[in-house]
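Researcher: Before we compare anything, I want clean individual predictions. No alignment, no superposition, just each chain on its own. First chain goes here; please echo the sequence and then give the C-alpha cells.
Model: Echoing the first chain and its structure:
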Amino acid sequence: MFRSVTAIGLAMLSFTVARAQEAPTLEIVWPKAGTIVELGDDPERSVGVVVKSSFKLLPASQCGENRQCGHVHMKIDPDGDTCNIPGRPYNSMNSDFGGDLIKARFGHCPSSTGRHVIGVLLADDHHQPILVNGKPMTALVEVTTK
C-alpha cells in the first residue's frame, strides 16, 4: 500500500514539475487579425482587447508564490512609442484589475484611425517580461480602426 501511494505521489509531483516547465502561452483572442474595429466614442477612443494565456492574469503584486501568474502590458504600434500614454512606456496594461480584458487607447495615437498593430507582452508580478528562450512572450495582431 505504501509503495503505491508513494508511486502516485511521485507521479503527481513529476506531472506538476513538467507542467511548471511548459512554455507560457499568450494570444490575442479579439480582435482577430485583419478585423475592422470601430473605435469607442470616449475621449481615449478605447477598444477592448481580449487575451488568453496559460498564466493566471491577476493584478500586480497579487500572485504571491505562483510563478505561473502575471499580467499583460500593451503597446499599440509597438515598433515605436507614438501611441503610448504620455510619460509611460505602454498604452495600457491590466495590472490594476488582472483578467483577460485590456483597454486599447487609440486616442493617444497621432492618428487613431487606420492600420495599427496591437502588441501585448506577458509580465510577471513585478512588471518584468516573462522570457521564453531568452525572448519576451508577446502576441501581435494587425487591425484597421475606423
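Researcher: Okay. Second chain, same rules.
Model: Second chain and its structure:
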Amino acid sequence: MPTLKITVGERTRLDQRTRQRISAAQEGAALDDVQPVLNVGSYAELSRLLSPTNLELLEAITEHEPASIRDAAEVVDRDYKQVHRNLSELEDIGIIDFDGGGAGQAKKPQLAYDGLEIDLPFAGPGGNADTAHS
C-alpha cells in the first residue's frame, strides 16, 4: 500500500505538479513515483482530519484489526454512533475502506494506506511556498 500525502490549501502548486506529470507522461516518461495526494482547504480541515479521536481510531484499526464498526468502538471505548460517524468521514476522504457490509454482514474498517505524509509548505519573505517543505 502507498502512503497518502496530505497537503493544505496549495491548489496552485498541486495543479502545477499535475500538469508537469501529464506532460512527462505524454512524452513517454516513466512515472514510478506516483503517490496519492489529498488536498485539504484549510488548517481547520486538517485539524479535524487529524483529531485525536480519528488518530486513535486509525491506530486501533492498525493494531487490533476490528471485524466491525462495533468492535472498533469497543476497542477505543467510545459510543458506536460517534465511531460510525468518524469512520464514515474517514471513508469519504479515502483514508479507510470498509470490507463487507452486505446483507447481514458487518462492515470491517481497513486502512487504505500504509501511512500519512503531511506536507505543509510555508511561504518565506518572498511569498514562495514552493521551496519550503516540512
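Researcher: What stands out in the second chain?
Model: The two ends are 23 Å apart (CA to CA). Additionally, The chain has a mean pLDDT of 79.
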